[in-house]
Structure formats: C-alpha cells, structure tokens
Specification:
Radius of gyration: 28 Å
Shape: globular
Helix content: 55-70%
Number of helices: 21
Strand content: 5-15%
Distance between the termini: 61 Å
Structural class: alpha+beta
Number of strands: 11
Largest sheet: 5 strands, antiparallel
C-alpha cells in the first residue's frame, strides 16, 4: 500500500520554506509526518494569514496539480479576497517541454508503431507545452492541417497521487479547522479532483468538442474544430487546426476591416446561446481560446473545462433574475441562500442590508443597461463575506459572464453585457412560469408532500414516546427560528400547491372525457377541495404575514 510519505515530506518542506507552516498543521499534513520539522535558516517568516506572493510561489514549487488548483481558486471571487485572486492569476500553465524522444513512445503506444507514417507530416517541436500535455502541428494524408495534443508521460500518476493526498487533507481540515468547514473544503476539493481527472482524459474533451459542434452546426458564424476519431484516444487528441487573429489584437482586426462592435455582440451571443438555449457552455473563454477569422467568424477551441445548466440551476437563476429586476433584497437573499447551501446559520438581516447596498449599483436601470460585471463581483464579495459557497456550475457561469464582458469591452468600449443577457434571461424566466413547467413542479411538490405524509406518523409516534417517558425542554433564541420558519413555509407552499393540483388535474380529466354525469358527481368534491385549500392558503398567508411583521419588528 502506497503511503505517500515522500510526497508529504516534500509538501511540508515547500510550505514551511514559503512561510505557510500554519497550513501544515491545519490541513493535517503534520500528523502524517513521523517527525516535526525544525525551522531552517532559509525559511521565510511564518505568517498566520499567509502572503499571496508566497502562496503562489509555493503552488508553483508543488507542481502541476497545485498550479491547476491555484488557477481554479484565482477565478473564485466567492472564496478568495481580491489580493489573492490577483496574485494567483499570475500562475501559468506553461511548462518546460518534454523531449520528443519521451513523447514519441506515447504516440506509438496509443496509435500504433506506425503512428508517424499515418500522417503526411508531423512537427516534432511542440507548438505549446503545458503541465498536462504538449501540442504538435501535423497534417493528415488528405492535406488537412491538424493539432495533436499528447499527454505528458507519467503525469496521470503524479496528478492522481496529489489528488488523493489533497482529498484526504481536505477531509481532515473540514473536521478540525473551522474555516475549512465553513467553506466546505472537502466538497470543493472533490469537485476540483473530478474536473482535473476529466482534463486528463482527452476522450472527454473530444466528447465535449463534438457536442459543441452539434449545437452550432447551423451557425456559420461560429466554428468548432473537427475531432478526428481514428487519430484520438484518452491520451491523444487530434483536432482540425483553426487559423485566425487573436481576439485581443485590435490593430490586426481593424486592418482586416472587421466590425469590432458586431464581433463583440456575436461572441457574447454565442456564449448566451450555450447557457440559456443549449445548457452546455464553454467555461474558459479566455483570449487564447478564441480566434477571429478573416470574414469575422469566430473559432473556439479547448473544451476541457465546461459547465452545464440543468433544470434546478435554471429555476435558481430565474428566481435571482426576478429578484434583481424587482430590486427586492429579501427575495435576492432567499435566492442566494437556496443556491448556496451552508452548514452555518446565515444572518439574513445583514445579508439583506448588504444586498440593498448592491442594488444601488443598478437601481433605476433596466437589466440591459446594468453593469453586469460589477454586480456579479459585488454579489460574489457578499457571498464570500457570509461564508456561502456557490455550486460549481454557478461559479463557472458567473466567471464566464465576467470574462465575456471583459472581452466585449476590449473589442467595443460601448459593449453592454446586460443588453445581450436581457432577452435570454427574460425568455428563461418566462419558460419557468409557463403552464407545462409549472405543472411539472407541482407534480414534484405533490411527490414530496406524499413522502412527508408517509414519514409523519412514525415521527409523531417517536415524539409521543419521548413525551411519555422523558418529557422535554425547549431552549430557543429568536434568530434560531428563521430556518424552521423557512422550512415550514416551503412545506406549506408544497401542500397547498399539491391539493390544488390534484383537484385541478382530476377535474380537467373529467372535462376532457366529456362525461357530463361524471362531471356533476365530481363538482362537489372539487369545490370542497378548492374551498379547503383556499382556506388553508388563507390561514397560511395570515400566519406568514404575522411572521413577516415579527421579523421586521
């Protein structure tokens, strides 16, 4: 059984040397070492908070897995303060190239000993060298120019060992370190491990690329490279080579006579289509992954990092958009709490006040004229200060929106991300409110209510047994009632909705059958159910209003 002892020692040595010794203890790394390390002459001063610069240097020394981790953290405004983000953004995925003599065996093992003869030409000097793989220019027998990504030999063993260590340390830290527990470092590290393992698998990137190609097959303005399956495996990825101008090369774009305003709108519209129409988006649209072709078309590459928008995320986004449009900090707070689960109690009053300050950024403006990037950055700062944590897909989405707005403003100083976002957001919100979607949610609410009803007798029986034999004492503070009230409010909504849904669906079914006699027989029960649920709703609303007055008071 591999113990990782040598790697533990190496990691501890690097952290101590960069003044980050507190991480050795807090992460549980110290407990995995047989001897406690003594301070060495070359060590930087140990700092309880850590220097952003020293943290970056430590990650660079620790190797490719930690560089990738730092790059991920540099994009998470909900987790790190700006000074750390800015420093970690300097981390580069460049690496010294592995000699061709070590790369060639990988190519031949994957594509056969005659691999090079299957290409009309193959350049042995890499176009780019990163921590995971290297990219080479080649040409197929039909004279198609391609790029061939080849995974560096041995990198999967190194990365998997580091990921195993990081996941173990994150579990320890989550149990013993309050800061790690607040931000659910264990879940964050599990997500990172899955993302990086996917990046190691070029077959996954090939599937992502084909999916984007299918989504844009009817859009001539967007070009996605072709994947050549016969030349690709989990360690080799052969793609059509795209040529074009860098999206940030303004002088070259102007010289080519390309309309930059239209180009910015086209690029942003493509990203919005990915999110709101396809539910599958490019999560890393930095300038190196975007080419501008001579005719103004846009070429996209590198689909290793992607995000997906499912029905749950759509509903959360819709609730957030409605709250933003209505300038309602209470609804914004509720939407954020539902979106960002946390193990600690959230101070709703302070959260609402913080959101009121944020609303002043765009109050009086439409979504089309709102400063989207500033609003997102402000919201992420609030999320971080309240120890909330965004789900991975939402974090990727917000990062993508900020990057897209930045690219648009480089191309067109008058670019408005809000103007591009507004029609998509409106359409998605309307879709969430249409009868079909609403009926599906009612069905789900009914199922949850039935489940609650099935569990309730047993729970009541246990409560009565406790009262009979032990009695009970209640110790509550006012602020502790908030989560209970919210839970009861949700259950009340679901129960009322389920009663209405049952009566409505049965009645409509009878009408559809056209059996008037049976309809007459159902009129009384249907009216009774409607009156009962109306009474329940009225009582519930009165109770909810009293609860709101108590909260405001």
């Amino acid at each position: 059984m591999k113990t990782h002892l040598d790697r533990y020692r190496q990691m501890a040595e690097i952290l101590y040397r960069n003044g980050l010794g507190y991480l050795v203890a807090a992460s549980g790394l110290e407990a995995r070492l047989p001897f406690r390390r003594k301070e060495q002459p070359g060590d930087r001063p140990q700092q309880p908070a850590g220097s952003p610069e020293y943290l970056r240097r430590a990650l660079e020394e620790l190797g490719p897995t930690f560089v990738k981790l730092g790059q991920l953290l540099s994009t998470r405004q909900d987790l790190l303060p700006p000074k750390y983000q800015q420093e970690l953004a300097k981390l580069q995925d460049n690496a010294d190239p592995v000699p061709w003599e070590q790369i060639r065996p990988v190519l031949e093992a994957e594509l056969g000993e005659d691999a090079l003869t299957r290409f009309a030409a193959f350049g042995t000097v890499p176009l780019a060298s990163a921590s995971i793989g290297q990219v080479y220019a080649a040409r197929l027998p039909d004279n198609t120019d391609v790029v061939v990504k080849i995974r560096r030999p041995g990198v999967d063993e190194v990365v998997n060992e580091d990921l195993d260590i990081l996941q173990g340390l994150a579990g320890y830290a989550g149990r013993h370190w309050e800061a790690a527990r607040d931000y659910d470092v264990k879940a964050l590290m599990d997500e990172f491990a899955q993302t990086l393992r996917d990046e190691l698998d070029y077959a996954q990137e090939a599937r992502n690329t084909r999916r984007f190609a299918a989504n844009f097959q009817d859009d001539p303005a967007i070009q996605i490279p072709v994947v050549y399956h016969d030349y690709s495996t989990s360690k080799i990825l052969t793609l059509q080579r795209l040529y074009g101008l860098k999206v940030t090369d303004i002088a070259a774009i102007d010289a080519a006579g390309i309309d930059r305003k239209a180009l910015a709108a086209r690029a942003a519209d493509a990203e919005m289509k990915m999110v709101f129409d396809d539910g599958f988006f490019h999560a890393d649209p930095h300038p190196g992954n975007i080419f501008v072709k001579r005719g103004g078309q846009i070429g996209l590459i590198d689909f290793g990092m992607v995000g997906e928008v499912d029905d749950k995320l759509r509903a959360q986004l819709s609730a957030l958009f409605v709250a933003i449009i209505r300038n309602d900090p209470e609804k914004m707070a509720s939407a954020l709490i539902r979106m960002c689960p946390t193990s600690r109690r959230v101070d709703r009053v302070r959260l609402r006040l913080d959101l009121q300050q944020l609303i002043r950024l765009y109050q009086g403006r439409t979504l089309g004229t709102a400063p989207v990037g500033r609003i997102i950055s402000g919201a992420l700062g609030i999320i971080r200060s309240h120890h909330l944590q965004l789900p991975r897909e939402m974090a990727l989405l917000l990062r993508m929106l900020i990057m897209t707005e930045g690219m648009g403003e480089v191309l067109d100083p008058d670019f408005s991300m809000g103007k591009t976002l507004a029609p998509y957001a409106k359409r998605m919100t309307m879709h969430q409110l249409n009868p079909v979607t609403f009926a599906r949610r009612l069905g789900q609410a009914g199922a949850e209510t039935l489940e609650l009803g099935a569990e309730l007798p047993d729970q009541l029986r246990r409560l009565l047994n406790t009262l009979d034999f032990e009695g009970f004492e209640v110790h509550l503070r006012a602020e502790e009632l908030a989560p209970l009230v919210e839970r009861l409010e949700r259950v009340g909504n679901r129960m009322v909705a389920a009663v209405f849904a049952a009566a409505f669906i049965r009645g409509v079914g009878e009408l559809t059958l056209g059996d008037t006699d049976r309809w007459k027989n159902w009129q009384a029960p249907l009216m009774t159910a409607g009156l009962a649920s109306t009474g329940a709703l009225g009582g519930y609303l009165a109770w909810s209003a009293r609860k709101q007055r108590m909260r405001d008071y």
